[in-house]
Amino acid sequence: MFEAEAAGLAELAAANAVRVPRVICHGVVAGQAYLVLEFLPLQSHGDAAQLGRRLAQQHRVSAAQFGCARDNWIGATPQPNAWMDGWVEFWRERRLGFQLKLAAQNGYGGALQRDGEALMARLDGFFTGYRPQPALLHGDLWGGNHGFLADGSPVIFDPAVYFGDRECDLAMSELFGGFAPPFYAAYREAWPLDA
Questions:
Q1: Domain ranges of the chain
Q2: Distance, first Cα to last Cα, the chain
């Protein structure tokens, strides 16, 4: 788990867009995994517009396919990332389909599985003509995974990195909240969303 997080932080750092904590070291000692990161004194408020602009810059880092070179974790849940050519196929197989399998393994079958399968069968119709370019995503961008330094500059952490539709990061940020309106306005000014 921590090896994947360290790799994700390194990938985000290489984008040179939004600041991330530097990975100092990670490994396993006596059967216990560890990850040591640079200490950054964070606060909850800062330059939200700068975060929006820098996230748009990060999303311009692209790949030939959707996915990632390694699987990782979103929270405590494994996240498969094997590369795929198409966004809809990736979303269907690696995100929705995988979550449905986990739900079934944990006793959530019946209507949830039927409705999930029906949704997956209709995905192509929802995305007709929509061909996003693979963008470098944080992958778990909610209010608890960002902060600001004393000078107001943004920091993101605890990623679940993969290359996907850039709107996934924005959707996650809206789902759980914690992002000020200037964040969205600055993002859309830096890189307008498709109509």
A1: 41-195
A2: 37
Looking at residue 31, the DSSP 8-state letter turns out to be: T
- Burial of residue 42 (CB within 10 Å: 0-12, 13-18, 19+) is middle
Per-residue pLDDT of the chain (195 residues; tens, 9 = 90+): 799 999 999 999 999 999 999 999 999 999 999 999 999 999 999 999 999 999 999 999 999 999 999 999 999 999 999 999 999 999 999 999 999 999 999 999 899 999 999 999 999 999 999 999 999 999 999 999 999 999 999 999 999 999 999 999 999 999 998 999 999 999 999 999 987
What is residue 22's DSSP assignment? P
Alpha-carbon gap, residue 73 to 128, rounded angstroms = 30
Active site residues: 140
Alpha helices, H only, the chain: 2-15, 48-59, 87-90, 97-105, 111-126, 167-176, 181-190
CA dihedral 74, 136, 126, 115 (to 10 degrees): -10
Closest CA to 68 of 155, 161, 145, 6: 161
CATH architecture of 41-195: Alpha-Beta Complex (3.90)
